[in-house]
Each structure stands twice: as C-alpha cells, then as structure tokens.
Amino acid sequence: MLMAHPAVLARLIEQYETLQILHAEKGSPEVRRRMDDLAYTLCVSTGTRDIDTALIAARHQLPGARPQDDSLITL
Around 20, how many Cα atoms within 13 Å sit in the side-chain half-sphere? Predict the structure, then answer.
C-alpha cells in the first residue's frame, strides 16, 4: 500500500479538526461537504474505512508517534 507523506497527513488532520469546530458552530452544508471530502481522503490515505480509525492511523504515521502506543485499532 502506498503511504501518504507525514506532512500531507498532518495537514489533512489539521483541516479536518478545524472543520469539525466550524461545523459545530455553523453547521453549513459546505463545511459538511468539505469534511466528507477530507474524511474520504484520510481513509484512502491510511487504508481505513471510517474517519475515527483514519485519524488514529494517520497520527501513528506522524513523526514522534510512539510505536508502543496500543490505541491503534486493528482491522
């Protein structure tokens, strides 16, 4: 499986989390659509099927991730 560059993953995570806050405040359809796009991209980039697992997997691929951390969900 191809793996996304950690810098790309970090940017995707940051954008998704920012939009989560914005969606909670405003809830516009445009924000929701962009969140869905980012969720899809994160899932494809990490080989996962849902956004929660994708975020965990993406964080594990970032520099400084602890390899002994057992919070990664097994697929």
Answer: 11
Q: Read off the pTM.
A: 0.80
| Residue type (1 letter), 52 | D
DSSP state of 71: -
Count CB-CB contacts under 10 A for residue 63: 7
Domain spans of the chain, in order of start? 1-14+27-62
pLDDT by residue (tens digit) across 36-51?
Answer: 999 999 999 999 999 9
Model confidence pLDDT, tens digit, residues 22-35: 888 888 899 999 99
How far CA 29 is from CA of 17, 21, 23, 56, in Å, comes to: 16, 14, 9, 26
Question: CA-CA distances (angstroms) from residue 73 to 26, 30, 55, 57?
Answer: 31, 30, 11, 8
